[in-house]
């Protein structure tokens, strides 16, 4: 990369119009007075390898990756971080100066950073977690909770076979229960995480009676539209602390911005407002 070049970064996916990342990175670029640009790019799967070969030649330092390319980019990467390999997907690519493509997954660290920012006393170690859902987002959360020392993760998914597949991938600390058994385990849970799309605008609500949850438990939802889902409202009603999904979205962007634009950005109310505008 020539030093006088304006640094570029962006996000690839299909569709891409809904992505909040351009607003997030655009806010940080303006705030720190960095002469760079962050661009949403719609990329089809059969163009992926050509696009990844071209972008560094035209000034891109890296890109975020979203659906449907998060798994496919691993096939094309030269360097894969341990956490991206464990999750089996990448969301942050960097075009290194030696020409190598570096692939990382920052979803899990974004999730942990968001919880710690909202609830500084939270510790994954202190009690078992209940994770709802067994898709791509769930893999990142499970990996992060294990990394943080969570003693046990109870996993429930509408389609049980997908939860069983996660158990075979991540091993002994995972136990799988049926979706209908969720209320039966709540009393032991310290952290409850919704990784399904239930509760999102346009989807059904996630309606679980949370009466058996200890009031010391923390309930968090990856959904951020709306910011306060029915799950979080139910959690507040039984006296639990809640963390919405916006923090994870913001924190997962931090490592990429720092690598591409050379400054670690802050996650604060100003960026929260800018992204939710
Ligand atoms: P992501 O990468 O965002 O996790 P995904 O891989 O499509 O997306 O996973 C979506 C998750 O939401 C899955 O756990 C899915 O359950 P299934 O594996 O049974 O499909 C869950 N989900 C979506 N709609 C649901 C619904 N109506 N009821 C229960 N779970 C639902």
Weakly predicted, low-confidence segments: none
CATH class of the largest domain: Alpha Beta
Summed up, the domain count is: 2
Beta content: 15-25%
- Give the strand order, joined by hyphens, for the main sheet: 2-1-3-5-6-4
The helix/strand order is: EHEHEHEHEEHEHEHEHEEHEHHH
The termini sit apart by 34 Å
Number of strands: 12
- Structural class by sheet pairing and helices: alpha/beta
Determine the fraction of residues in helical runs and give it as a percent range: 25-40%
The best one-word shape is globular
**Ions, cofactors and other bound molecules:** 2'-monophosphoadenosine-5'-diphosphate
Question: What's the overall average pLDDT, rounded?
Answer: 96
Give the biggest beta sheet. 6 strands, mixed
* Estimated radius of gyration: 19 Å
CATH architecture of the largest domain: 3-Layer(aba) Sandwich
- Remind me, CATH topology of the largest domain? Rossmann fold
> CATH superfamily membership of the largest domain, which one?
NAD(P)-binding Rossmann-like Domain
DSSP helical segment count: 12
């Amino acid at each position: 990369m020539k030093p006088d070049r304006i640094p570029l970064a962006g996000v690839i996916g299909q569709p891409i119009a809904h992505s909040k990342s351009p607003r997030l990175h655009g806010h940080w670029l303006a705030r720190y007075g960095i002469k760079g640009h962050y661009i949403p790019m719609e990329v089809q799967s059969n163009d992926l390898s050509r696009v990844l070969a071209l972008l560094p030649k035209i000034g891109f330092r890296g890109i975020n990756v979203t659906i449907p390319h998060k798994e496919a980019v691993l096939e094309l990467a030269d360097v894969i971080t341990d956490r991206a390999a464990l999750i089996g997907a990448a969301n942050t690519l960097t075009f290194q100066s030696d020409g190598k493509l570096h692939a990382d997954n920052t979803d899990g660290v974004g999730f942990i950073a968001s919880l710690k920012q909202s609830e500084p006393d939270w510790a994954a170690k202190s009690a078992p977690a209940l994770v709802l859902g067994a898709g791509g987002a769930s893999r990142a959360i499970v990996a992060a909770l294990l990394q943080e020392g969570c003693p046990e993760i109870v996993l429930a998914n509408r389609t049980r076979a997908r939860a069983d597949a996660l158990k075979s991938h991540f091993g002994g600390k995972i136990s799988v229960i049926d979706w209908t058994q969720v209320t039966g385990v709540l009393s032991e849970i310290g952290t409850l995480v919704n990784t399904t799309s239930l509760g999102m605008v346009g989807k059904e609500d996630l309606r679980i009676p949370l009466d058996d949850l200890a009031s010391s438990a923390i309930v968090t939802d990856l959904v951020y539209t709306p910011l306060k889902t029915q799950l979080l409202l139910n959690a507040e009603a039984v006296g639990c602390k809640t963390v919405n999904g916006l923090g994870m979205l913001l924190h997962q962007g931090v490592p990429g911005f720092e690598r591409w634009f050379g400054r670690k950005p802050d996650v604060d109310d100003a960026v929260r407002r800018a992204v939710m505008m």
